[in-house]
Model the fold of this input.
Amino acid sequence: MDEQRLKNIDFNFSEGEMLLINKPYQWTSFDVVGKIRNALKPLKLKVGHAGTLDPLATGLLIVCTGKLTKKIDEFQAQEKEYTGTMVLGATTPSYDMETEVDQTFDWSVLTEVQIKEATRNFMGDIEQYPPAHSAVKVNGERLYVKARLGVAVELRSRQVNITAFDITRVDLPEIDFRVVCSKGTYIRSLIHDLGKVLNNGAYLSKLKRTKNGNYSLSDAFEVVDLVNQIRVLKEDGKLK
Done:
């Protein structure tokens, strides 16, 4: 279905395209941009993305080419929607599955009612600290680089806004959720902080971005399908 839809689009990458991409698991956002930029050679174009997704996250990534790269900040500023799964009763240094569990807790004392009530603490404007294992830069160096070297860094909080924090499935220790939030929100930190409010622990085990503003994952292309269509355009002399 995506392949047929791609064939019907008159792409003009030089003038500018806004591409909705389903970022694969374990790819960085820069991997996606690099793949598309390389596919577009020999065209020398600016290619960039709006709103970084962690390697272990999947879902909607907006990639812009040509003149539309000027609108990246606009797309990045839009509200985001995520769905995912957390694990209660444990923490990890990275707040997700990138690192091993470093502490465990008894989750059997928690109820679904307590968990849902705890999410109310995070509605509206909240102060949030980024994970130590994150792409935030301190003194020009990304935090995850320092974290992997075991270097302690003083983290600065930031204000973010949570519009929705819904618990959609409880099968302890796993919990599924849906979050609608402002730009710059770290879902890993949100889950970690929820664990603390419950006097317990929690880490993120699965995350998918489903919306960015009015754009939806259901309209996104797979990277491989888009690259294949670019290859076809090259072969037909229609790449522009």
